[in-house]
Amino acid sequence: MSEHHHDHDHDHSELSETELRVRALETILTEKGYVEPAALDAIIQAYETKIGPHNGARVVAKAWTDPAFKKALLEDGSKAIGTLGHVSRVGDHLVVVENTPERHNMVVCTLCSCYPWEMLGLPPVWYKAAPYRSRAVKDPRGVLADFDVTLPKDMEIRVWDSTAETRFLVLPMRPAGTEGWSEEQLAELVTRDSMIGTGFPKTPGAPS
Amino acid sequence: MNGVHDMGGMDGFGKVEAELNEPMFHEEWESRVLAMVRAMGAAGAFNIDTSRFYRETIPPHVYLSSSYYKKWFLGLEEMLIEKGYLTREEVAAGHAMQPGKALKHGKFDLTQVERVMVRGKFARPAPEPAKFNIGDRVRAKNIHPATHTRLPRYVRGHVGVVELNHGCHVFPDTAAMERGENPQWLYTVVFDGRDLWGEDGDPTLKVSIDAFEPYLDPA
């Protein structure tokens, strides 16, 4: 790989050089007949429109309102989500882990970036970056402090390091004051970070 | 391999900085890299574990100073060259100079797109019964393969408890090196935080990894 550019002029940024290299690679792959550029466009469009935390939020909201679904979800996440027609297709071995007053769950991939992307969309940069990957398994309370999240001192913290093809989704606790709310209303409270375990759902009435 | 990618427990990387209203891609090229990796993988140019291994073999100083998709790009380019799908001359020229190599699943076109939007299936029939039961105490082996592995350094040598059995799966350690799927039982093994990090560790912490059976000894 190229390392020749480090000392060069700064108006030729690494970014633009990367951009040129990426374009060159796509040109080569296209000319060699490996990929159709329109198919690449379609992949990007699918990522941009079909996946995202709204999928996970619907699953969480359903679990908050439907005890039978919640039970099935905790037993076999992929299977239970597969029964919901309105949620995007989900891969195998999605494990849903429940937050309780005794235990808080948090998900990381120390080796790279494994993430339940069908449910949450592509992972944010911080999830894939060194500070989170290095510290989540050793000092999760310190990591949570970076998110302004504090847990009770004696609450168990369980960190799930996604080292295989299994994917983990946190089922956060339902916020107080939401009795009688519909699934749609509840889904609005479910944040991406609350399903990673680095945040809580929004509180009813709080500014979003 | 004991690379910089195996970050669990390292110090000194600083605060986690979350970006407010982060876009899915920060630059357009990032999306092209993601799409090319998905497309070439689906076309059969490489398996997902091989692509992970190529990112791990990026030199440490480059790995640590490159953005996520830059690493994806560097890994992809090098892998495609080494697997014979393109040449360094072509990369330097920015154009194809010879015909392409046949892809296992053919050209990636519009009809294939749906397929890449579902995670691959890695469960396989069990070649033999599972060695461990839920609740068994197991010790993560003290192994240091120079090739791809999913056993992070921070658990090696430590004792944990088998909590879940996920069935048999493709074994990334061999798949990454193109030595076959070699299916193995996969377990969630949970460790006590203070067993991993010592007496000063958080007493409320438990950490689990998903461990393939060859990583584990009875304890």
What features would you describe in this structure?
- The complex is a heterodimer of chains A (208) and B (219).
- With 208 residues, chain A is mainly α.
- Chain A has two domains: 14-49, no CATH class; 53-196, Nitrile hydratase alpha /Thiocyanate hydrolase gamma (Nitrile Hydratase, Chain A, Alpha-Beta Complex), CATH 3.90.330.
- Chain A contains eleven helices and four strands, in the order αααααββααααββαα.
- A five-stranded antiparallel beta sheet of chain B has the order 4-3-2-1-5.
- Chain B is built from eight helices and five strands; from the N terminus they run ααααααββαβαββ.
- Chain B is globular, with a radius of gyration of 20 Å.
- Chain B folds into two domains: 28-115, Cyclin A, domain 1, CATH 1.10.472; 137-218, SH3 type barrels (Roll).
- The two termini of chain B are 25 Å apart.
- In chain B, α1 packs parallel to α4 and α2 crosses α4 (68-82).
- Chain B is 29% helix and 16% strand.
- The mean pLDDT of chain B is 96.
- Chain B is an alpha+beta fold and 219 residues long.
Which features characterize this protein?
heterodimer; A: 208 residues; mainly alpha; Nitrile Hydratase, Chain A; 2 domains; two-stranded parallel sheet; two-stranded parallel ribbon; 11% strand; disordered N terminus; B: 219 residues; alpha+beta; Cyclin A, domain 1; SH3 type barrels; five-stranded antiparallel beta sheet; 8 helices; 5 strands; Nitrile hydratase subunit beta (chain B); Nitrile_hydratase_bsu (chain B); transition metal ion binding (chain B); lyase (chain B)
CATH class designation of the largest domain in chain B: Mainly Alpha
CATH topology of the largest domain in chain A: Nitrile Hydratase, Chain A
Strand content of chain B: 15-25%
| Shape-level CATH architecture of the largest domain in chain B | Orthogonal Bundle
What structural class should be given to the helix and strand makeup of chain A? mainly alpha
Q: Please tell me what the overall shape of chain A is.
A: globular
Strand content of chain A: 5-15%
* Succession of helices and strands of chain A: HHHHHEEHHHHEEHH
CATH superfamily of the largest domain in chain B: Nitrile hydratase, beta subunit
Total of DSSP H or I helical runs spanning 4+ residues of chain A: 11
InterPro entries (chain B): CN_hydtase_beta-like_N, CN_hydtase_beta_C, CN_hydtase_beta_dom_C, Elect_transpt_acc-like_dom_sf, Nitrile_hydratase_bsu
GO molecular function (chain B): nitrile hydratase activity; transition metal ion binding
Catalytic activity (chain B): an aliphatic primary amide = an aliphatic nitrile + H2O
Domain Nitrile hydratase beta subunit-like N-terminal (chain B): 1-102
